[in-house]
Design goal:
It contains 8 helices and 23 strands. With 387 residues, the protein is α/β, with parallel strands linked by helices.
């Protein structure tokens, strides 16, 4: 119910006070509700969100009761795309409504989005872009029967799925810990520690520095980041001396219908597409090249395990490319070949930490030097005491 990080105590709903030595905040995020945008009706029995297990179970039950009917999906992001695919697979007609110009606007380029929209259209999904929900019509049982849009259109509906974003659950700690106003979430350092050294944060609620982005803070909403940041925090607490900074490579993926894509890095800069996007035959993808000519992001649809590992590796190395046409021509082969020069140096201002080969004699020499210094310090100390 409340937290006092200064006193290091938590208060539960049963009135119990819990003291802690170390606290890990893993409160995640909550789904944004229609009411936050002035639309009432989230409590209708056939309006669904998807954030937790209870939401998933309810969504399945509503889908079963709406079999053969019509569904309106509000939102064109992850939840919208994945739920639309599941609804169509379960013989429900789907119309997706979102204000952006194309689906997955935060990640997809217009070219990539066009491929997926064409594929979804081939499965019977309809798209209404550039408008938003204005109201819900309900019957005497409180069930939604139609969706009214801001552009005046009315869509009959047997069920509605809402995926319009999330907000990190920071409420318990506002005013006590530093909140990242730009990215949302609780601001942490490279050890995932908050502004209070006894408190850590992980997952969707944490805004942490990314070495690949010059240590600028970013909050990432994905299960991979949640898992890996949790592993890192536990290691930091249990074995602080041998745990370095959280050096995370942003990673997103999705599987819909027979399609499967992965993305690594940052989708900033000039985009270089490759592969055949005119058909439903992969693989195809894109590289993002920053102002310095470095590849900082990569997207791939329909790749193999080795090919996905190759695009992840190239986003860590961030090689400089000169000829964009050649990059587009070589496409996936450029990443798979590994023929893109040496990695960035450790001193590069992108903040990338590069692993270097450690030879045995390097280690032996280091031990010898350390021993020599220790011996000298011991001898010198004894002489000073005699003087």
């Amino acid at each position: 119910m409340s937290a006092d990080v200064r006193r290091q105590t938590l208060l539960t709903s049963s009135g119990e006070t819990i003291s802690y030595k170390t606290l890990i905040i893993a409160t995640g995020a909550r789904a944004l509700k229609l009411e936050e945008f002035g639309v009432m009706g989230s409590d209708a029995p056939n309006v669904c969100y998807l954030r937790n297990l209870a939401d998933a179970s309810r969504l399945v039950n509503v889908m079963q009761s709406a079999a053969g009917g019509k569904a309106v999906v509000i939102g064109g992001g992850y939840i919208g795309m994945e739920c639309a695919a599941s609804l169509v697979t379960n013989k429900i007609s789907v119309t997706m409504v979102f204000p952006e110009e194309h689906i997955m606007a935060r990640l997809f380029t217009p070219t990539i989005a066009a491929f997926y929209e064409d594929y979804y259209s081939s499965k019977g999904v309809e798209f209404i872009k550039g408008t938003v929900l204005s109201s819900l019509e309900t019957n005497s049982l409180g069930q939604v029967v139609a969706v009214n849009l801001k552009d005046g259109r009315r869509l009959p509906a047997d069920m509605v799925v809402v995926g319009i974003g999330i907000r990190p659950n920071t409420m318990l700690f506002e005013g006590q810990l530093t909140i990242d106003e730009k990215n949302g979430g609780i601001k942490v350092d490279a050890k995932m520690q908050t502004s209070n050294r006894s408190v850590y944060a992980v997952g969707d609620v944490a805004s942490f520095p990314l070495p690949l982005l010059g240590s600028r803070n970013r909050r990432l909403e994905h299960v991979d980041c949640a898992r890996k940041s949790a592993i890192h925090v536990v290691s930091s607490i249990m074995d602080p001396k041998d745990t370095g900074n959280f050096d995370y490579l942003p990673f997103f993926y999705s599987r819909v219908f027979t399609l499967s894509w992965q993305f690594y890095g940052d989708n900033a800069g000039e985009v270089v597409h490759f592969g055949d996007l005119s058909s439903f035959q992969g693989p195809f993808g894109a590289y993002w090249v920053n102002g310095k000519g470095q590849i900082v992001g990569a997207f791939l649809e329909g790749g193999s395990k080795d090919e996905y590992e190759a695009i992840a590796r190239i986003c860590r190395v961030q090689p400089v490319v000169g000829d964009r046409l050649d990059l587009a021509s070589r496409g996936l082969e450029f990443a798979v070949s590994g023929d893109y020069g040496p990695p960035l140096s450790a001193g590069d201002d992108m903040g990338l930490v590069v692993e270097r080969q450690l030879y045995a004699w390097h280690a032996a020499a280091g031990v010898l030097v350390a021993f020599s210094i220790s011996a000298f310090a011991y001898w010198y100390g004894r002489r000073r005491r005699r003087w």
